[in-house]
């Protein structure tokens, strides 16, 4: 099992006291499996994704990634987990603007110490980025930037890929193309994919589908 | 991993070259001004130390002749026989073809241990020093002596500037002063039960060590320079702070991404610190090199100032001293740390999931401006407290700091207020937009405008002080140099004849009768004056009582200098002990600018009674026809031309010394203002990148790019004008503190303050031109922004 989430709760403090976002969520994901996490705005999808990625901490419950319990990890240990076992793809791409496309693609793998230039070149080619490698992100379209983000994540060869609305900023045709490429490459690497999305069309292309409503899995 | 993170961090600067240039150049300029001043100070201190080490100046008590300038060698022998541990010194000017050298003769066998005349290098032994005759001098003086003396000249850089050291016997021969001494150095330990000085050598007076006069003056001169250097550094640090803040705000997104990808926060912070330390070292090294150039250019003027005003010798050439270049590098690192600490703190505290969009990077907006204003208020109250109740030079500088920092902090609030007022007067939509947009720009430009405020205020303050000093000094010279001719003779026996000749040929003759003594614990020159029309008509008093000159003439009162009065805590009406049997009330206080010693005037008759052996060797001559008197003196009396100096030459020389004094501060003024203009340029250029989204809507609604460029220029000039207008009263306040507080504490005299509206108007114009020039390039760049760039603002995928 690459991911196990057990009875996780999370609340944020608001003007009227604590607002519960997740109320005992449990789910699991096996190696190579793809899962769509859907739900209305405020249902806790992104919060759950952040907790799994170690970007935030749970109030209660347990999360195991690649067999390791992350809720008891320190900040540094969670950072190390993100470098080696987890890859996160954001809706806003989050590329480093001052690095070239090539350096952006290599960045996470270099951090993890797993950089393989042949693998990176293959991924760039598969995503249609070869001719853009020396450019800076600002010179690319949104779809191209998201492809760079996908390549960056997959170059590091994580066991678990977390994607937060990765095609949310793209037009329908581009979104469909980027999604196809991402699914194909994730399957090739054997990683598990958990994708947060609003789109039922996107969700249908995943192997499993979990819907969150008011902090519960329904 | 470390290299990957560092590469990503450094890539920001590579992609934002202008920001990097602003950071490095701001820091380098700040360090340059600071280390330039430190280099000058270090050089001067090294010269003082060399003087103290080689000549015993200030270290030991000394015995000086009560009257005249020489001690007979027999007096020295008598003192030694009586058990006094004293060592003779003879000093004098030795003329060579290439200039004068101050010859100092010492007796190494009796000199106190810590006076190390020379390093005894180049196989010059004590035997050489004593028997064959060797002179030790720095490279400059050694070159002057080359060929001018028969003795061997050994180059020793540790010898004080302007001096050549030799054995006392050699000095007596060179100076044609056989059997004569200038002073006697008193060893700190004296045998028990020796006869008192008054018995053995009644004609000598003992001057205690650490005669503070010149020390205090030179110290305060250096303190002033240091304060100026620090202020210039602060102006430069504003640039650095602004650049780092902007860069770190722009890197928020990068930081968030890197952390999301697994970079530990601690590694990120440490590498950012390492990155900044690296930049600080590079910029510091550039700054130190620039500082060296500044110091090398300014040092000759500083040396002339210290020599001319305070009699302190400083080498006119600069050496690379570890103490100042290390301090330059250190302050560059510290300054960077100070400028970056806030930005680093924000990054350290930024939640991982916070918005990556750069926030306004400005120091002050809304509530922050109010908060800074409140801090400024506290500083002003503190400053007022110091002005009313504080004492001491350090508190004087704290007062200056309160004023300047307070003014800088309150500036954003005042600018917002001024722009809001202008906004209320605007009627057209374009001007309403202009003022609203200007208000939005105030936070972003605050740091640069603070730099301009400080630079302009310092310029107003220092130039007011200098110009007030100049006006006062010229009046003072008119008062003190009233005689048309001055005559100096060497032979005391000639004095009565010359005086009689002068009385027969001149309107009024003023013999210069003086001794060095101590009055009320202050080393003082006591003068005997022939009260006449010159004193009555020309001398102005800072404080006086009725019939001053009548009472002085009658021997019923004395006139003392402001320095003596302030240091001794005396004022008009107070009695002061002039000599053991003579106590006189103070009839008036006179200014005596630039003199580290006190000064007291009594009537000629009283003086001659106290010091019957003192013979005037100098005379001031009042005449309606100086040329005729001069001709008679040379032709009829046979006085050499060199013995006569006319007033205009002395006045010109004094003014020249004075002008050189302030060349240094003038140069620093210009440099500081240039740094402020640079700060404006850098702010505008770095702000330009985030201005596009603010300007694009105005362009879309019908303003041409050219109009936008013009309005940008106008905005910079308007903000600079408001800042300069605020800087003038601040500068005047600064001048008041310098003249009425710092000057009294540092130098012992107070200067009247004069206003120079023409200069302020010129300075305002200069500041506006500097701001306009700084804004010109960004405005041109804006007017040439391609429409495609402006359109990107409206694109969804931006």
What do we call the CATH homologous superfamily of chain A?
Answer: P-loop containing nucleotide triphosphate hydrolases
Low-pLDDT runs of chain B = 114-122, 210-214, 356-364
Q: What is the beta-strand fraction of chain B?
A: 5-15%
Q: What is the count of structural domains of chain B?
A: 4
Number of E-state strands of chain B: 20
| Unreliable residue stretches of chain A | none
Give the N-terminus to C-terminus distance of chain B in angstroms. 31 Å
Q: Please report the distance between the alpha carbons of the first and last residues of chain A.
A: 22 Å
Task: Kindly summarize this structure in a few lines.
Chain A has 7 helices and 10 strands.
What structural keywords apply?
A: 218 residues; alpha/beta; six-stranded mixed beta sheet; 7 helices; 35% helix; B: 798 residues; alpha+beta; eight-stranded mixed beta sheet; 24 helices; 62% helix
Describe this structure as you would to a colleague.
The complex is a heterodimer of chains A (218) and B (798). Chain A is α/β, with parallel strands linked by helices and 218 residues long. Chain A is built from seven helices and ten strands. Chain A has one domain: P-loop containing nucleotide triphosphate hydrolases (Rossmann fold). In chain A, 35% of the residues lie in helices and 28% in strands. In chain A, strand 1 (3-14) and strand 2 form a beta hairpin. In chain A, helix 3 (101-112) runs parallel beside helix 5 (142-155) and helix 5 packs parallel to helix 6. Chain A starts with a strand and ends with a strand. In chain B, strands 11, 12, 13, 14, 15, 16, 17, 18, 19 and 20 form a ten-stranded mixed beta sheet that branches. Chain B has four domains: 1-57 and 217-361, no CATH class; 59-209, no CATH class; 362-475 and 654-798, no CATH class; 490-638, no CATH class. The longest helix of chain B has 54 residues, at 647-700. Chain B is α+β, with helices and mostly antiparallel strands and 798 residues long. At the A-B interface, helix 2 and helix 3 of A face helix 1 and helix 9 of B.
């Amino acid at each position: 099992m690459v991911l196990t989430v057990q009875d996780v709760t999370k609340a944020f403090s608001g003007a009227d006291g604590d607002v519960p976002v997740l109320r005992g969520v449990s789910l699991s994901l096996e190696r190579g499996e793809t899962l769509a996490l859907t739900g209305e705005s405020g249902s806790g999808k992104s919060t759950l994704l952040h907790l799994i990625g170690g970007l935030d901490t749970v109030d209660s419950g347990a999360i195991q990634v690649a067999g390791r319990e992350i809720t008891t990890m320190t900040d540094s240990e969670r950072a190390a987990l993100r470098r080696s076992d987890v890859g996160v793809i954001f809706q806003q791409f989050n590329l480093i603007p001052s690095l070239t496309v090539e350096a952006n693609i290599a960045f996470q793998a270099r951090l993890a110490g797993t950089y393989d230039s042949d693998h990176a070149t293959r991924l760039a080619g598969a995503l249609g980025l070869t001719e853009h490698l020396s450019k800076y992100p600002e010179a690319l379209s949104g779809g191209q930037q998201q492809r760079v983000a996908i390549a960056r994540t997959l170059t590091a060869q994580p066991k678990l890929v977390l994607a937060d609305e990765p095609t949310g900023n793209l037009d329908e045709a581009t979104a469909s193309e980027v999604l196809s490429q991402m699914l194909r490459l994730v399957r090739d690497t054997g990683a598990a994919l958990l994708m947060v999305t609003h789109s039922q069309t996107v969700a249908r292309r995943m192997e499993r589908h979990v819907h969150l409503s008011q902090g519960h899995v329904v | 991993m470390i290299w990957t993170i560092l590469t990503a961090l450094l890539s920001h600067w590579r992609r934002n070259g202008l920001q990097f240039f602003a950071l490095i150049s701001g820091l380098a300029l700040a360090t340059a001004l600071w280390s330039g001043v430190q280099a000058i100070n270090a050089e001067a201190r090294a010269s003082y130390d060399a003087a103290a080490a080689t000549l015993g100046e200030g270290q030991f008590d000394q015995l000086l002749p009560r009257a005249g300038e020489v001690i007979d060698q027999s007096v020295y022998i008598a003192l030694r026989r009586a058990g006094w541990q004293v060592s003779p010194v003879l000093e004098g000017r030795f003329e060579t073809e290439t200039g004068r050298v101050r010859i100092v003769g010492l007796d190494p066998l009796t000199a106190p241990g810590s006076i190390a005349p020379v390093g005894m290098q180049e196989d010059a032994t004590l035997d050489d020093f004593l028997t064959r005759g060797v002179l030790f001098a720095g490279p400059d003086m050694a070159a002057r002596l080359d060929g001018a003396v028969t003795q061997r000249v050994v180059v020793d850089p540790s010898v004080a500037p302007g001096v050549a050291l030799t054995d006392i016997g050699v000095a007596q021969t060179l100076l044609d002063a056989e059997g004569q001494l200038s002073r006697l150095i008193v060893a700190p330990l004296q045998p028990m039960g020796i006869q008192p000085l008054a018995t053995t050598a009644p004609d000598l007076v003992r001057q205690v060590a650490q005669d503070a006069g010149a020390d205090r003056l030179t110290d305060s001169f250096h303190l002033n320079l240091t304060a100026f250097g620090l202020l210039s550094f602060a102006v430069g640090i504003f640039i650095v702070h602004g650049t780092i803040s902007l860069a770190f705000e722009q890197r928020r997104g990068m930081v968030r991404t890197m952390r999301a990808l697994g970079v530990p926060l601690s590694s990120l912070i440490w590498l950012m610190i390492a990155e900044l330390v690296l930049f600080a070292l590079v910029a510091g090294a550039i700054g130190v090199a620039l500082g060296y150039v500044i110091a090398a250019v300014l040092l000759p003027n500083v040396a002339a100032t210290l020599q001319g005003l305070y009699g302190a010798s400083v080498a006119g050439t600069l050496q690379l001293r570890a103490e100042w270049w290390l301090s330059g590098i250190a302050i560059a690192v510290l300054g960077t740390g100070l400028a970056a600490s806030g930005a680093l703190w924000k990054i350290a505290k930024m939640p991982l999931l916070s918005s990556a969009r750069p926030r306004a990077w400005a120091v002050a907006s809304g509530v922050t401006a109010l908060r800074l204003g409140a801090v400024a208020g506290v500083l002003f109250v503190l400053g007022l407290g110091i002005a009313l109740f504080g004492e001491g030079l350090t508190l004087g500088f704290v007062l200056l700091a309160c004023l300047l920092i307070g003014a800088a902090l309150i500036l954003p609030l005042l600018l917002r207020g001024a722009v809001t007022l202008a906004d209320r007067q605007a009627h057209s939509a374009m001007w309403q937009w202009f003022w609203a947009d200007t208000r939005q720009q105030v936070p972003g430009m605050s740091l640069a405008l603070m730099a301009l405020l400080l630079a302009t205020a310092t310029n107003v303050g220092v130039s007011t002080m200098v110009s007030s000093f100049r006006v006062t000094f010229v009046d003072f010279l008119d008062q003190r140099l009233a005689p048309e001719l001055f005559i100096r003779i060497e032979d005391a026996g000639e004095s009565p004849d010359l005086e009689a000749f002068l009385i027969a040929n001149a309107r009024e003759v003023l013999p210069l009768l003086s001794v060095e003594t101590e009055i009320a614990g202050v080393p003082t020159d006591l003068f005997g004056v022939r009260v006449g029309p010159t004193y009555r008509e020309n001398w102005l008093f800072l404080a006086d009582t009725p019939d001053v000159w009548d009472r002085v003439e009658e021997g019923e009162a004395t006139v003392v200098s402001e320095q003596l009065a302030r240091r001794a805590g005396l004022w008009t009406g107070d009695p002061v002990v002039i000599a053991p049997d003579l106590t006189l009330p103070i009839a008036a206080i006179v200014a005596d600018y630039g003199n580290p010693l006190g000064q007291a005037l009594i009537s000629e008759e009283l003086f001659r009674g106290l010091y019957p052996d003192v013979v005037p060797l100098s005379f001031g001559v009042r005449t309606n026809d100086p040329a005729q008197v001069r001709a008679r003196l040379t032709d009829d009396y046979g006085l050499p031309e060199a013995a006569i100096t006319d007033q205009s030459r002395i006045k010109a020389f004094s003014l020249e010394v004075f002008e050189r004094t302030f060349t240094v501060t003038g140069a620093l003024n210009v440099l500081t203002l240039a740094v402020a203009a640079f700060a404006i340029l850098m702010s505008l250029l770095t702000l330009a990148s985030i201005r596009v989204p603010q300007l694009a809507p105005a362009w879309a609604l019908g303003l041409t790019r050219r109009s936008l460029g013009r309005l940008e220029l106008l905005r910079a000039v308007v903000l600079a004008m408001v800042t300069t207008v605020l800087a003038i009263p601040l500068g005047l306040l600064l001048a008041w503190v310098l003249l009425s507080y710092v000057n009294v504490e540092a130098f012992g005299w107070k200067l009247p303050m004069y206003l120079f509206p023409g200069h302020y108007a010129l300075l305002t114009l200069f500041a506006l031109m500097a701001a306009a020039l700084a804004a010109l390039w960004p405005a041109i760049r804006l007017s040439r922004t391609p429409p495609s760039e402006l359109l990107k603002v409206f694109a969804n995928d931006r």
